[in-house]
Hints:
single chain; mainly alpha; disordered C terminus
Amino acid sequence: MDDNPPQLARRMWTLFEPVHVVTYFTPEARSAFEDAGLRGFWRGYFAGRAAPLGAAAAAPVTGSFFSFAPSMVARALPGVWDLIAPADALAVRSAGAVAALRRLVSGRDPAVPELASLLADAASGLDCAGRVLAAANAALPAPAEPLALLWQAATVLREHRGDGHCAALVAAGIGGCEALVLRAGLDLARGLLQPMRGWTDEEWDQAAARLAGRGWLDQAGRATPAGTAAHRAVEDATDLAAARPWARLGHAATERLAALLGPVAQACAAELPFPNPVGIPAPAYGSGG
Length: 289
């Protein structure tokens, strides 16, 4: 286990993020939303992820989700609340995630209660100042069922980290579309990122021009050394801002958690495409240590 706090935070992210994203990538989760009357992937996505905020309009969700085009968010919100109430969306997303995890972690049942308890300990009592999505998810009642608790704890931690990532981007003067364009200049394809976040070609090209004006992209749209350094600085700030849960949990408990979480993360990651728009790297989990 790495004792460097930012590096440890990034390592733990690669372990809990796959648990959270079963709600986006598994057939059980998608079917749960479809069975609730939300046809099409994005209705379920926006209803489920935004539901902790209540019946939110498009503007605050666009601000919280950060990298989505406002026009894409507005196609789902607030209209989706005519199809499902936020409380019901919360129940549906939990049920779909639990069904997926039940299949994926089959055979590891004896370890799940301890794993869920440890991850919930890491997610409890977080300082959520300035972290709207984390605060909204942390305020939800803790489920008694271990798989539901495991998924909710992973969700709180990923939104806590994500809120910190958005803050780091804002501090660096990087907007939502610009964050994607810069990432596309590094390692993820424009064809993967742009349609998944709803930006038009004109909006994408304008963002690229702004980044090129800062010396961060070359004429081919690839990140320059300065652009790579800027991206690295944002990632480092994100890791630093995400380190506190593991310091609070302590070295021994974090090491135990990583060992238990590693195989579960690997099973969940098997459901993901690589590369993916979430940015999770290809798995190399082993024991998690």
